[in-house]
Design brief:
heterodimer, A: mainly alpha, 4 domains, 70% helix, B: alpha+beta, 14% strand, elongated
Chain lengths: 431, 273
Amino acid sequence: MTSAEPQPRVAASAYRRMEDAVGGWLVNALDTVSTRTFAVHQAALLRIGYGLVFLVGLIREYFNRREIWGDQSAWSPDMARELLDGIGGVSLLLESNSRLWFEGIYIAAIVISALFVLGWHTRAMSILFAIMVVSFNSRSILMTDGGDTVLLLMSIYLAFTACGRVWSLDARRARRTGIRPGTGPGHEVGVLVALIAMVTLGTTCRGDSWSPDPEFSFAFVCRWIWIPGIAVAFGALWRLPRQVEQVRAGLVTVVHNCALFVIAAEVCFIYGAAGLYKVQGSYWQDGTAMHYVLNLEYFAPWPGLSHMLGENAEMGVLLAYLTVFVQVGFVFMLFAKRVKYVAIVILLGMHFGIAIMLGLPAFSASMSVGDALFLPTAFLIWTRTRVVTRLTARLRRGPAAAKPAPAGGAEPPAPGTSDGLEGVASASGRV
Amino acid sequence: MQSPDDAAAGQPADRSKPGSEAGATVGASTADTTADRAPAPDPDRSSARIPAQAGERAPVDTPIDTAVPADERRSTAVRSISALFAVVAILVTLVHVFFVFLHVAPGNAVSGDYRKQTGTWIYPYFEQNWALFAPNPMSENFRLQAQSRMRNADGTVVESGWSDLTGDDLDHIRGNLYPSKADQNMIRRAWSSYTDAHDAKDESAIGTRGPLTQRYLRRIVVHRFQDAGANRTLESVRIRVATKPIGKPDAKTEPETSYRTLGWWETKPDDFR
């Protein structure tokens, strides 16, 4: 039939085919981003990593907590409020001047971080985790460094991801019970419990007294309620009609994918900007930058070692150039698989060096966790398996050596035990 | 708490008959018979499960299925609404990435034009600065030193010598695998925020942050001295900053230390914490 058609019609049908192809591609792409949850393992690793960075930091600073964020801080609550009012910042720690409130929030932050690492009601915990990180950052902005900024950004972004789909207590529970997360009442009860606890605490301690203060409670609730509100809406407190449920799942998925893209972009921006600023500096150009960096007293936990390294001109030039090249080139290297891994290995080495030599372990850890986003899933699974196998092998050998009896025990709790956290996994035989 | 519905949702079997699920929601949507056009699930592309390489540990490393499996059939209505959400989410993402880029990149022609919009979007939660040891690393070390005036019970005033507050912090940092923020960031950032907000010549405030940063610095010093006097009151404190340049790599002579000495600051009751 084509031969009989006049010329314009052919053109029109070619156009039509193109239009169909483009439209089809677009429809497929939009379908994909709202049904396919990308990089769940990487997201889980980021959750564990950033959760641990914050948790370890809180524990490390436990004995300095009052000086850094609390009542003994030279940066008093009033000064913090004055600064935050100017930029529209908020902090849970500034809701009350009471010592009890502070200690309560501190313990809550530790507990929330731990639960976030473990992946217990992950979505709820991720939101509370972000609130905590924001609160501690805003309380004492002048105590923060680059590491805290990375953590702050990532904690906010992570709250938008589904970072508990794997390697979490949620995943373990889902496998054990066979109940998929996201349905039915009770699943995000954690959020509600936390909300009620927060408000109750907020109503009870105001100033230095324990007497309830309705005005304060009202202001407190107004300021914070929207966050758990959104969480609850997302978590779906009741079972929705199937189609609404599908729309909700699609929204969760696309938000997850977008947030992961933002995290990836953020890591590239950090390296790109750090590199672009450095190329403008004369010390980085002539390769003496390392000499100056290694002579900064605030960043020299091991002065002897720093001086030794700082005096070596060849090493200095090599490190300065390598740093700039890898930082500027990071975003481009990501597009080539093999080069990407070289870049990541170099960066991890650099961060290890920064952690030890400059005394910045938290910053280094935060950046390393960000790099991990670009590692392949198969590698993450392989590593996890190896680590877990080694650990459990050691753990098993321990008691076995102590008391030889159960060595031959035929039925230790099934294959799942080998993976500590994940528990009796395969029993339910999903998928 | 558990409705029978939930239990049913947990059975892998129900994935094969999404129709029955949809049937329960007749009212929610106008029956959509074109639902069948949803793309067939492609096991390789579905990230919701990890294929073979996970080996025998697959269950642990396999992401859990959510209430709505990735390959469940979706009606055209659902797909359209999802697509709309996706478009909005992608647009917000792009806007965010764009503003973060403008905020983070070294100052340029475009970032100048959009400074106001960028600020609105970025502050306070996405503020960041990645000029790490750049454009040039600091080429000098500073030490914040302070002295105090104490009033004794008998009314006499004693002026102390200079104490090296930075030196105390450095003692804590040395040999420490994880230095505290209190040692590494407190004085360092307090001093840099003070210098940002004050004129180096006459110590007059520049901009609005002047009084705030001065008060912060004073309180840090007071905090270090307040325990020293049992029967004495801390009347005022004074700060000086000793700056010693880091010599060039091939420098033969030690660089000279220079001092910036500030005036006496009277303590306020609220300084003591």
